[in-house]
Amino acid sequence: MAAAKRKTAKKAKRNKKDAGSPAKSSAVAEEMEEAEKDRIPGPVSKGKWKNKERILIFSSRGINFRTRHLMQDLRTLMPHSKPDTKMDRKDKLFVINEVCEMKNCNKCIYFEAKKKQDLYMWVSNSPHGPSAKFLVQNIHTLAELKMTGNCLKGSRPLLSFDPAFDELSHYALLKELLIQIFSTPRYHPKSQPFVDHVFTFTILDNRIWFRNFQIIDEDAQLVEIGPRFVLNLIKVFQGSFGGPTLYENPHYQSPNMHRRIIRSITAAKYKEKQQVKEVQKLRKKEPKTVLPHDPTEDVFVIPAEEKPVEIQWVKPEPKVDLKARKKRIYKRQRKLKQKVNSRSAK
């Protein structure tokens, strides 16, 4: 019993000594946290990812290497995009809405290749629309340009639009569609919370020109990164990949028509050359018109009898006979060969 009392007494003494230690430790921990707050800055973004825009970027079969590289460049510039396998040419475009639903995407960029040389780009809001079809021209990829500009992978871009987008209704619709597709959602898990580049969309010659620039904070300058491409609008549809036509570009000329015009111009040039040659042949065959002799032409002509005779006082130099000289040279060479052969025989 005495031993048990001693143990309890000892334990009670320890508790009394350590009674004030938790308060002291909590105060020290608070001071340490405040010091760390002063040293380390807080997180850049504390919000939630609310804008759930997801873009499906893929193509049809038959695209060339430049289109494939452009598609890959767009995927790297847009962290909220998703890839997919190439679609068969026989499938109808309405199937893309089902693919978007399976991939949980509400926007789509679809590259359609025709004749292995023409590239069309569909931009659509799936599944209800609207959608727009473009002819893609003047493609220059990131690897091809090798510009000095550079930006972080996954960083959010600024979107700069030409003032002409607000003047016409179909351009205003395209502006809203491009904003929803190319703007990276805030707080996206794959994006970085920095803005260091600009996507510019300018209207020139009834076409939309796309450029990507880096923002340099030190000098407040823009340096181009790439890629580059030009979008020639064909039609704007009410639905996704079809439906009633809202707008049709009157200035659009199909690539087939353009190639046909070039061929007709070259054929016209060839025909013109052939016609000129035929006219020249006919002129040569025509009899020449003989003009009557004009006596005034012989006024300053001196007859041969009245011409002064030139006397040569110095004997002219004899002409060099090249054939005789060659024969001499050949004779010498033959004699030398005969001597050499005779010596070698001895």
How is this structure best described in words?
This protein has helices at 2-17, 21-39, 65-77, 95-102, 142-145, 169-182, 255-285, 322-345, and strands at 55-59, 81-83, 107-114, 118-125, 131-140, 155-161, 192-204, 207-216, 221-224, 228-239, 242-248. It is of the alpha+beta class and 346 residues long. Residues 1-5 and 7-19 have low confidence and may be disordered.
- CATH architecture name of the domain at 55-254: 3-Layer(aba) Sandwich
Shape: elongated
The Rg value, from CA coordinates, equals 44 Å
Helical amount: 25-40%
Quote the average pLDDT.
Answer: 86
Would you give the CATH topology of the domain at 55-254?
Answer: Rossmann fold
Name the CATH superfamily assignment of the domain at 55-254. Answer: Brix domain
CATH class of the domain at 55-254: Alpha Beta
CA-CA gap between termini: 143 Å
Assign the structural class, choosing from mainly alpha, mainly beta, alpha/beta, alpha+beta, or little secondary structure.
alpha+beta
For the biggest sheet, the summary is: 11 strands, mixed
**DSSP strand tally:** 11
Instruction: Enumerate how many helices there are, as a single number.
Output: 8
SSE ordering: HHEHEHEEEHEHEEEEEHH
Strand content: 25-35%
Low-confidence stretches: 1-5, 7-19
Keywords: Nucleus, Ribosome biogenesis
GO molecular function: rRNA binding
Pfam families: Brix (PF04427)
Family: Belongs to the BRX1 family.
